[in-house]
Amino acid sequence: MTDDTSATSDQHDSDEPTDSRRAVVLASGGMDSATAAYLAAERGYEVCLLHTSYGQNTADREFECAEALSNELDAVVDFLHVETGHLQAVGGSSLTDEGIAVADADLDAGEIPSSYVPFRNANLLSMAVSYAEAAGCDALFIGAHSEDFSGYPDCRPSFFDAFQTVVDVGTKPETDIAIEAPFVEWSKTDIAERGLELGVPYEHTWSCYREEAPACGTCDACAFRLQAFQRLDERDPISYEERPSYVEEA
């Protein structure tokens, strides 16, 4: 597993404990953002969680999981839930548009999947920066990782570097908020392994693109998640309709 790094590692050394005291974490309800929250706490941050419901298929379950995280992690000092319908109104994604089916898993696909929500991370990060500046935070954590940016253009390291410039230019002169994407070069397996070390309660996280209970087990998000636990020889604690094997036979 690689070292903890951020998308702005040239300015913010993520291998060392930070002197900053408070960070916003974008809490989707999934395992990546939950792990990011626990990592921020380990680095000494007080954590402000921001969860956004934007009309996604599993919005209710994701909110329940984000709220559970806020109760499980002692470092959480605030939990903000924002409801917005504009991404659903825009459409163009199988996560928000009932007319687009959620595809079955294809972990080797090279094209942008139908689950891509157009420019979602820019929207979420913008809200999170507003929250961070108003709350006097020093950092903003997002759990994006390498298997995300292989398909989603707004999960690439270059995107987060560019967004850091937007933050630096678009906030008050005295504001200094670091965009931290600590898993940007990691795999899902790396994240699961680190999260298990940190004691992340993965039973209170949700990844499925289709269903709120049980998880389908066959969409991309379920496949990457199950594969990560299977590679670590650990059982994913959430319930699935199917649990296919996503690891190659020895």
TrEMBL record:
* Enzyme nomenclature, EC number: 6.3.4.20
Please list the residues that bind ATP.
27-37
Entry's InterPro entries?
QueC (IPR018317), Rossmann-like_a/b/a_fold (IPR014729)
Q: Which cofactor does it need?
A: Zn(2+)
A Gene Ontology molecular function term for this protein is: zinc ion binding
Q: For this UniProt record, give its keywords in alphabetical order, as a comma-separated list.
A: ATP-binding, Ligase, Metal-binding, Nucleotide-binding, Zinc
Q: Into which family does the record put it?
A: Belongs to the QueC family.
Q: Where is this region: Disordered?
A: 1-20
Question: What domain of life is recorded for the organism?
Answer: Archaea
Composition skew (Basic and acidic residues), residue ranges: 10-20
Q: How does the cofactor attach, per the note?
A: Binds 1 zinc ion per subunit.
Entries under Gene3D superfamilies matching the protein: HUPs (3.40.50.620)
Key word ATP-binding present: yes
Ligand binding (Zn(2+)): 208, 216, 219, 222
| Originating organism | Haloarchaeobius iranensis
PANTHER family with a match to the protein in the record: 7-CYANO-7-DEAZAGUANINE SYNTHASE (PTHR42914)
Q: Which Pfam families does this one have?
A: QueC (PF06508)
Q: Its catalytic activity?
A: 7-carboxy-7-carbaguanine + NH4(+) + 2 ATP = 7-cyano-7-carbaguanine + 2 AMP + 2 diphosphate + 2 H(+)
As for what it does, the entry says:
Catalyzes the ATP-dependent conversion of 7-carboxy-7-deazaguanine (CDG) to 7-cyano-7-deazaguanine (preQ(0)).
EC category name: ligase
Q: In which pathway does it act?
A: Purine metabolism; 7-cyano-7-deazaguanine biosynthesis
For this entry, the protein name equals 7-cyano-7-deazaguanine synthase
